[in-house]
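Researcher: Next entry in the queue.
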Amino acid sequence: MIDIQKAPIKDLLGIAIRSEIDSNRVYSDLAQHVTNPLLKEKFQFLAYEEKKHKQILEKLSDILCPDTKPHIPEKVDEQLLPSIQFTSSTGLAEILYQATKAEQAAEEFYARTAEKVSGLPQKMLTYLSKIEHSHFLTLKNEYALAQDFADYGEQDIDKIIT
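Model: Structure for this entry, 162 residues:
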């Protein structure tokens, strides 16, 4: 696993960009596969935020490494930033559990990366860390709901009551 404290910032930004690209794709895919409109909307929102994070990271790269572009790896080290892995048979609760772990890891990654820089870049990385924490909290709540309601991804729970 890469040592965040020793790795060049351009490498860390490349890893982060790859992770945001992958997260955007996963949340977009999940939004297409659930029929619960509230959950669909949450996945769409998360996909949008991950896309915006990628743009922030690209701008940070331009500021911190103006003469070089970050190397964006094909895949991210799963120990550093775990991805969400699922098939058509993976249950929603398992997917949400993996998503909480991925968001926790991203929160820590950005917080530790922020320690390597100062000024505006540090503030932006700290911002990303805090936003990833908010994603974790959102997904943690969705995970609890998915555990309580077996068909949570397929049902509009609000309409069952009315």
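Model: Helices lie at 9-33, 37-64, 92-114, 119-148, 157-161.
Researcher: Noted, moving on.
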